[in-house]
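I would love for you to help me understand the pair of lines that follows before we discuss the fold together.
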Amino acid sequence: MTEYIKGLVLYTDGGARPSNPGKMGWGMHGYKYTTEPSKRGSGLAKHNITDLGYIKESDEKLINSTVTKVTPLEYYDFFGTEGHIGTCNQAEVDALRNSLMNLKDLDVSRIHVLTDSSYLVHGVMEYIAIWKTRNWVKGDGSVVPNKDSWIKLDQLIETIRANGIAFTVAWLEGHVGNFGNLQADSLATLGVSHGMKGKLFQSIEVSPAQGYWKKSVEKHPFLGFRKLYFNNRPEHNVPGVYYLADPGGDEFVIGRKLPAACYSIVQLKEPDQVLETIRTAQCDINSDTSQVVVARLDKVYSPDVFHSLTKFGGFSLMQRGKRNTSLDFIDDKPITVVIDPPGLVFQAVTIFEELNKQLEEFKALTDTESLESENVTDITSYFYDISVITKNGKTSTVYKLKKEFNLGADAIKKVDIPATVNNRKVVIPLTLGLDSPERNQFKQLEDYQPRVSLITWCNGDESYRFCTIVKTEEGVAIWANYYANRQFF
C-alpha cells in the first residue's frame, strides 16, 4: 500500500526600505501538500507544483526521481512588520522565523524553504552550528549580527526537527521571474510598506487549495478604457467621477490629434473604491504643484493587483523614488505616472470640458423625464432586444444584446444610426469601442437596464459632432472618438 507524505514548501523574503538599513518587512508564500496524485488540475497555469517548489511546464525535464509532483491542500500568504529599523539580512531571518512560528504545529513530515538570501541559507545549513559552539561569537571575537533573531530561529528549527520533521533550506536566484519568489517578494514589500507608513502589522492568510488561483475582479462596465487621468490635488477630484481615455499612443501624448484617441467621462453613484484608493495615495505624496496623473487601468484591474488593492488599500502602492512621485505596485511595476512636463495635456482637458458640458445638459434633460430632444436620440433598441416577463407574479424588463453583436470575430463593430441634426437628415457611423462602449461592455450592461443615447451638436454651419451616453440606475457615462467624430453635412 502506497504511503503518501504531507509536507510544506515555503518561499520567504525580507527587505528594508527606503535604504539598507531601513524599515523592515517580511513575507512568505507557500503551500501544504500531499504526494497523493491529484484528481483535478491545480488551477495554476504553466506550472507544476512539486515537493521542491513551483516548476515551469517548460522545465518539465527538471522533474525527475528527486522531484515529485504533489497535490496542494492549502496555501499560505503571510507578511508583516514590527516597524523596526534593520537590514535586509535581518528581515530575511525574520521572514523565516515568523513563518515557522505560525506553521510549526502543522501535521507534516517535511518542510522545504526556498529563499534568494544566501545569508539565510548558509546561516541555517552551516553557520548556526558553529555559532552555537562559540556562544554566538564570530571567529574575530565580534557578536554574530542579528544574534537575537538567529537564536529564536534556531530554537524553532530545533523544535521542528525534534518532532521528526525533515527541514531544509535552499537558495534560488531572486528577481529573475521565479514564480514563488515573486509571490514572497510582493508580500515582503507589503510588510515594508506598512512599516514605512508607521503601522505595525501582521497578516496570516490561509486559503483552501480549491479555487485559490481564481481571483475575481469587480469592475463596472463603464470603466472600459485603459487609462484614468486625474489631478494630484484632491480638491480637483470628485469621488465617483472618472476621466478615462485611450489616447491612441503613449499616455504622455494625451491630447494629440490621433484618429484612434477616445475619451470618456464616467459618473458613478457609488465610487469605485480601488480607483479612489489610488487617487488618495497619489494625492497624499504630491507637492503643491498641480499636475495631471495617469493610472494604468489594465494593470489596476489585473487579478493580483485588484485583490491586493481591495484588501490592503494604499499599502499596496509604493512611491517610485524620493523625487519621483509616481506610484508602483508592490511588484515594482508602474500603476501611476505623473505627466511632467504636461505637454498636450491641456488639449485633452479642453475635450473633457466639452464632453462634460454635453453630459450635464443630457442629465438636466433626462432629470425632467424628457426622453429626447433635438440633439438626443434614444438608440437603445439598436443594441438590445427588450422584453417584459412575468414570473411568480413579478414583472421585470429583460435586456439582451442583439445576436449580431455576439458573433465573435464576425460580430458587428459599426452601426449606422439615422439622426436629425439642425433639421437635416444624417446617418452617423457609430464604431463600438471608439464612439461608444465596446461589445463586451454592452454585454455586461444587460443587467443594468441601460438607456443608450446618441448626442449630436453643431460644429459651425457645415459640420457637427456626436458622442454616446449610457445611463443606468448606477450612473451615467459619455464616450467620444473626438478627433474622428466630426461629420460634414
Remarks:
- The chain has ten helices and 25 strands.
